[in-house]
Amino acid sequence: MRRWLVGLLVLGLVGVTAGVGVTMALLGTHADRPSTGAGVPRVSPSPAGPEATRAPRPALAPYYGQRLDWQPCGDFYCARLTVPLDYADPGGETISLALLMRPASVPGERQGYLVVNPGGPGGPGTDYARGATTYFRRQLTDRFDVVGFDPRGTGDSSPVDCLTDDQLDRWISLDRTPETPAQERELQAAFDRFGAGCVQRSGALASHISTVEAARDIDVLRGALGERTLTYFGASYGTKLGATYAELFPDRAGRLVLDGALDPTLGVVALNRQQAGGFETALRAYVANCVDSTDSCFLGDSVDGGVARIEGLLGDLERRPLPAGGSRQLTSGAAFFGIATPLYNRDYWFLLSNALKDAFDGDGRTLQDLADAYFSRNADGSYANNSEEAYRAITCLDDQGSVTPARVERLLPGFERSSPTFGEVFAWDSVGCAGFPARAEEQPPTIDAPGAPPILVIGTTRDPATPLAWARALAAQLDSGVLVTRDGDGHRLQRRQPVRGRCRRVIPARRHRPAGRPRLLRRGPGALRLVGDISRRAWGPDGPGSGGEPGVSPGCCGRPPRRRRTWG
Fold first, then answer.
1. Greater model confidence, 539 or 154
2. Rounded Cα distance, 503 and 12, in Å
3. 363 — alpha (psi -120 to 50), left (phi > 0) or beta?
């Protein structure tokens, strides 16, 4: 499953944020103040000077020393960054990456550039920066020039191309739970055609869109921006990208926030099984909300009964697809994506309810629309971007570990224990990279980033796409990782979603964790000044200091208020 939901942007249903309380603590901003208008873009190099543009090796110096030509593009500024197609051959072919900047609203208080990545892989970062005022609160947008980039192979940065639009339509409706040997062969053939199409239609680019190469691009971007160290917010897959950057360039890592983390050590089977469990947990939370908060839940009067009814719908669609408008038919494969899409955000659960009610009444159009949104398919049949092609191509290039159909049959019981509803879909997706012909020249490194400053890792208890266990694992793997957990629903922290349940905890990485219970604060060098209770009671609706006496965090989990402590 893709870990970034570009389709919801097409619907205009936005609301993902950086978990502003702790994020602001790490990024070192001040209290919220009124905006005074748009800032003026800065042209690299910045006052950091030659140290910022120093290349890791001489052959890369022209890339690090390039000046970005920021030009107005609507209400923003756009530029192109030139990077080598192959870092082993910096004098050879080059590619161009799309950049978009939203200048700081208060130029006099500007603190630098914040580079952002929304995840995926395949999510265009330019869209993320374009929506900065939606995704991030003013404590960030007033004081940082928010810079988004489309990673190589995505968006407008030499996009990888694997399938025609008609082929993508068939890909959406593919039967992803084969029941006969012929159906298994058909599924494997579809995966093989996808991989072969990437090489046939994209050539050498298909072998040079790995996460490692994208992380090297980020360092070129840092140099071109004139920043001595990188300030970065990465969501979902963007956490893997940010962690890889910290591993490759620990001395250039500045203030990094990784929200909705991936565990880079997981193989395809463990990753898919755990993600299936995450979606099952999210589905049950959705059904429980319907049962508990409505007088007569349309799914029934119990969670088990409601989930069983949804499972029954998927089974019925295997045998008899529903009309979905025009000549289109809602298949079980498309319905899976239509159900999964609203589970990314609790604010979208009402869409799932509407879609399921329609489907129970024999109308598949709403679930089909949600599936189309997941794949960025427009109403006219075109596709807004290449997010699905980039997702699978980058995923397979990073880790070509795959399983045979015969092994899937043996793995199915374990997947179905993790997720009775979705386990079979995720199990069969484990064969997806077996026929991918492109090969990366540089393998992903082991992630621990020794020497990097504190790196904040955020996880949510009922995150469907990136389970909390992954955030715990990444924070433990990073030498300087600091973990924040939130008890809540949806993928990553949600800006408009009220915080529910118990207070979150900030937990140091394993090498620095004191004995006994995890502490709210980790002491050590660096710029992190305030971590601890990040509930809305502490921060209030308008950011730090608006929910109580300045400098005092309200009581948490039944304990009396405690004085906020600082590092350094």
1. 154
2. 31
3. beta
CB 367, CB 406: distance < 8 Å: no
Look at strands 76-84 and 455-462 and give their pairing: unpaired
Give the CA distances from residue 136 to residues 14, 131, 132, 147, in Å, rounded to whole numbers and listed in that order.
Answer: 11, 8, 6, 13
Which pTM does this prediction carry?
Answer: 0.79
Burial of 267-298, coded b for 16+ CB within 10 Å and e otherwise, reads ebbebbbbbbbbbbbbbbbbbebbbeeeeebe
Mean pLDDT, the chain, rounded, equals: 79
Cis peptide before 45 (omega within 30 of 0): yes
Query: How many angstroms separate the CA atoms of 69 and 44, rounded?
Result: 9
- Catalytically active residues are 236, 463, 491
Rounded Cα–Cα distance for residues 365 and 171 (Å): 17
Strands (E), 166-297: 230-235, 253-259
Would you say residue 300 has pLDDT above 50?
yes
In a 3-state reduction of DSSP, which class is residue 461?
strand
Per the model's pLDDT, the better-predicted residue between 198 and 6 turns out to be 198
Helix (H, G, I), strand (E, B) or coil at 310: helix
Cα–Cα dist 201/197, whole Å: 6
